[in-house]
Structure formats: structure tokens, C-alpha cells
């Protein structure tokens, strides 16, 4: 492999490791803030125990997640200098706002929350974790607006062989960026909900602190069901935006080679990119792709052959990643709905199969999130900025294959260690239970 391939693998590895931490931070911050607000409102000590227990797990994940995110920006200068040179004036703006506004809010108020127990009023203490939760989600907004610009570039002009920002409001109001934001944070909320459901189910099976974990279970089930349903709605809008802004990605998602009208959605299809034809088409829903993408059952959908061969994204990864993500989303709705209704019937202890299923399902939302990023980023290829700059043109010119291989090995080892530490600490304190 050359330096380009190794640099792409390195960024993919580091980004995917980082995104193992991000979604839990996004969702668990909201849940912990809600739990502490319930404590402030009711003075029920059970809610205080919940806040401290889940808050400890949140802090472990948050601290290690910050460490994994720092190296991503360094890689823009190390491995992707041509990208930074060409679009740095645009891409750096939302990243700078994220660092100066959202991250400083997070860092300041998480310190107040950690060290402010019994030193500030309960209301101020609860407010501090709400600010952390809002800042965390605001941080995601600016990063995803930057990524949304890469997916659907707006508000710029090419001058002196560089992309220059001419309309910041176009980026700020980008429909693609906002849909990506809502899609991503809702995925994070699902991760957090199933994290709390899985750990609560483990303790309920063992009859540990039943009032606390049954209440945690109910809160997470409500949060998870709402998030799982909303993500379907947002995903529908996002799919339509992909159809307009990235038609080649849509074709790859459906393994559609010929331009057609009234395109069906195949639940099971084995693409054969070598022969540029579909080998197997099974369980098709008539005209559904045309409707979902363009809200017209007879709308025309461009096939991959409508694009130059060198501008077609990889089909296999995009097609399978999309279908697995959708299938997992359906499973999350089913499990969270069962958890929601059974938690209100006070029948959890008599449902060991559901509780065991939720324990086993705990890692699945992480997988769905990673699959979503594979669809988004692999489906964008060969462009790093869609229609503007190709990935092959963005790599640093001075990076050798040896340097890229060494840095890839180093980052993979470092991130594996950090993720191992995270899993160890989360498992240790999750099993230990609340300190009461």
C-alpha cells in the first residue's frame, strides 16, 4: 500500500475509535443531567445515587474520549496538508468555534460539577451538568457542520487555486449539515439509552439496588424509544438530501447500476461490482427508493453507470453498511418499545429473556453508529470534499509510505490501549454498582 492508502486507513481507524467514545458522551450527559434535576426537584436520595453512579461512568468515558479526539486535528497537518491548504480557511472556522465556545464550556463546567458537590447549591450544581450536556451537543453541532460542508460544500469560491469562504451563513444553515447533526446525536442518544438499559438489566437480574436500577431502566427505555423513532424520521429526510446532493452515494447504497424510474428497495441483494450487475435481488418493496429519495414513486434515480468509473464510490461497503444499519435501527425500536411497556407494568423481574437480550444488545448501537459513518464516508469517495477535491489530491506530498505505516501502527496501538482502559473501567464500576 502507498502513503495515500495508509493515510486513509489511519484516519479511518482513529476516527472510528474516537466515535466509540463520542455517542455515549452525547447521550449520557443528557440522562445524568435529567437524573440530577429529578433529585433537585424531589430531594429523593435514590435520584442522587443514580446521578453519582451514572455520572461516574460518564466521566470515565468523557475523559478518555477527549484524549482520542485530539490527534484527529493533528492529522490534518501531518497526513492531509494539501487538504488543509486547499480548504483550511473554510473547514477551520467551525472547528475554531467548537474549540473556543463549546469545548471551553464543557471543560469549565465539568470541573464545577466534579468538584462542586456540597460546595455550591444543588440547583447550581445541576445547572452545571446541564451546561456540560448542552456544550457537548453543541460541540457535535460545529464538527458536524464542518463534515456536512465536506459532504455538500456551499458558501465558497475557488480563488488562487484554493477554496475561500464567502458566505458563512450558508454553512451555518446547511440542511445537509443540520440533518447530519440530528442523525448523529440521536444515534448517540440510542447508544446511551441501551448502555443504561444493559447495565440496569444486569443489576435487575441479580436483584441489586432494585428501586434505583428499575427507575434507571424506565428512564432509559423512554429515552431510547423516543430517540429510536426520531432517528427514523431524521434518516428519511437525510436520505432525501443524499439523493439530491450525492446521487452517486445513493446509487451505491442501493447497488443500482442502471438509471431507472420507480426503483424498488431490496431488503436482500448481493451486488456484483465486477460485472456491474446485480447478482441476486430478493424481497423488494416496489418503487420505495424513488419515493424515499424524491417523494415520488416514479422518480428517476441515477445508476452508477451514469457517473465516470473513477467517480463511483465502493458499492459493497456502502450497500451492506446501509442495510445493516437500518436493520439494527428496527431492532432498537422493538427492544426499546418492549422495555418501555414492560417497565411500566412493574414486570421486569419476570422478564429474564428481555433483560438478557438487552445486556447482549448493549454494543449494537455502537456498531450501528460505525456503520453509519462507513456509509457516509465511504459512500462519498473518491471525494474528500464532494465534487470539489478528491481524496487522492488531499494527502500530504512529503509523507512517505514508511512514515504513514509507522504512524498508523502507533495510533492503532495507542487507541487500542485507551479503548481497553475505557472498557475495563466502565465494566469495573458498572459491576460495582452505586455507593450507598
How are the SSEs ordered, and which strands pair?
Blueprint (H helix, E strand, L loop, with lengths): L2 H40 L2 H34 L2 H35 L6 H30 L4 E4 L2 E4 L2 H5 L2 H31 L4 H36 L1 H8 L5 E2 L3 E8 L4 E9 L2 H7 L5 E2 L13 H29 L8 H10 L2 H15 L4 E3 L3 E2 H4 L6 H32 L4
Helix pairs in contact: 1-2, 1-4, 1-6, 1-12, 1-14, 2-3, 2-7, 2-14, 3-4, 4-6, 6-7, 6-11, 6-12, 7-8, 7-10, 8-10, 10-12
Give a brief rundown of this model:
The protein has about 425 residues and is mostly helical.
Could you please describe the fold and organization of this structure?
By secondary structure, the protein is mainly α. It is globular. The strands form four sheets. Strands 1-2 form a two-stranded antiparallel sheet. Helix 1 packs across helix 12 (364-378), helix 2 runs antiparallel to helix 3 (81-115) and helix 8 (247-254) crosses helix 10. The longest helix has 40 residues, at 3-42. A hairpin with a 3-residue loop joins strand 7 (383-385) and strand 8 (389-390). It has 14 helices and eight strands.
Q: Please tally the helical runs, counting DSSP H or I stretches of 4 or more residues.
A: 14
Helix content: over 70%
Largest sheet, order of strands side by side? 1-2
Outline the biggest β-sheet: 2 strands, antiparallel
Beta strand %:
5-15%
The average pLDDT is: 85
As an assembly, this protein is: single chain
Terminal-residue CA separation? 55 Å
Structural class: mainly alpha
Order of helices and strands: HHHHEEHHHHEEEHEHHHEEHH
Total beta-strand segments: 8
> Which residue ranges are poorly predicted, with pLDDT under 50 across at least 5 consecutive positions?
none
Principal-axes shape call: globular
Radius of gyration: 23 Å
Amino acid at each position: 500500500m502507498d502513503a495515500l492508502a495508509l493515510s486513509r486507513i489511519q484516519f479511518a481507524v482513529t476516527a472510528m475509535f474516537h466515535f466509540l467514545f463520542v455517542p455515549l458522551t452525547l447521550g449520557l450527559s443528557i440522562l445524568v443531567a435529567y437524573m440530577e434535576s429529578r433529585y433537585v426537584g424531589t430531594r429523593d436520595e435514590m435520584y442522587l445515587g443514580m446521578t453519582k453512579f451514572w455520572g461516574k461512568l460518564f466521566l470515565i468515558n468523557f475523559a478518555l474520549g477527549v484524549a482520542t479526539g485530539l490527534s484527529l486535528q493533528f492529522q490534518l497537518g501531518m497526513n492531509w496538508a494539501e487538504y488543509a491548504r486547499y480548504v483550511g480557511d473554510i473547514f477551520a472556522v467551525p472547528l475554531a468555534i467548537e474549540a473556543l465556545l463549546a469545548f471551553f464550556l464543557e471543560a469549565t463546567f465539568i470541573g464545577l460539577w466534579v468538584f462542586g458537590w456540597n460546595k455550591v447549591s444543588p440547583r447550581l450544581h445541576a445547572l452545571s451538568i446541564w451546561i456540560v450536556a448542552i456544550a457537548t451537543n453543541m460541540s457535535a453541532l460545529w464538527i458536524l457542520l464542518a463534515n456536512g460542508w465536506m459532504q455538500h460544500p456551499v458558501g465558497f469560491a475557488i480563488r488562487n487555486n484554493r477554496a475561500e469562504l464567502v458566505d458563512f451563513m450558508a454553512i451555518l444553515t446547511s440542511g445537509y449539515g443540520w440533518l447530519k447533526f440530528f442523525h448523529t446525536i440521536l444515534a448517540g442518544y440510542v447508544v446511551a439509552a441501551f448502555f443504561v438499559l444493559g447495565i440496569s438489566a444486569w443489576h435487575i437480574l441479580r436483584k441489586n439496588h432494585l428501586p434505583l436500577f428499575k427507575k434507571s431502566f424506565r428512564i432509559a427505555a423512554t429515552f431510547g424509544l423516543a430517540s429510536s423513532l426520531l432517528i427514523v424520521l431524521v434518516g428519511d429526510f437525510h436520505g432525501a438530501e443524499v439523493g439530491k446532493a450525492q446521487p452517486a452515494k445513493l446509487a451505491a447504497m442501493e447497488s443500482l447500476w442502471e438509471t431507472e424510474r420507480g426503483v424498488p428497495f431490496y431488503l436482500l441483494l448481493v451486488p456484483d461490482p465486477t460485472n456491474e450487475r446485480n447478482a441476486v435481488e430478493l424481497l423488494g418493496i416496489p418503487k420505495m427508493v424513488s419515493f424515499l429519495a424524491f417523494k415520488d414513486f416514479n422518480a428517476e434515480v441515477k445508476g452508477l453507470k451514469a457517473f465516470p468509473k473513477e467517480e463511483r464510490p465502493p458499492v459493497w461497503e456502502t450497500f451492506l453498511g446501509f442495510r445493516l444499519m437500518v436493520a439494527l435501527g428496527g431492532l432498537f425500536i422493538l427492544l426499546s418499545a418492549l422495555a418501555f411497556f414492560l417497565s411500566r407494568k412493574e414486570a421486569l423481574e419476570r422478564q429474564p429473556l428481555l433483560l438478557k437480550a438487552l445486556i447482549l444488545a448493549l454494543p449494537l448501537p455502537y456498531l450501528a453508529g460505525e456503520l453509519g459513518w462507513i456509509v457516509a464516508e465511504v459512500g462519498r469517495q473518491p471525494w474528500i470534499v464532494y465534487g470539489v477535491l478528491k481524496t487522492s489530491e488531499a494527502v500530504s506530498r512529503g509523507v512517505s509510505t514508511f512514515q504513514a505505516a509507522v504512524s498508523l501502527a502507533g495510533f492503532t496501538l495507542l487507541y487500542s490501549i485507551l479503548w481497553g482502559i475505557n472498557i475495563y473501567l466502565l465494566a469495573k464500576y458498572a459491576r460495582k454498582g452505586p455507593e450507598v
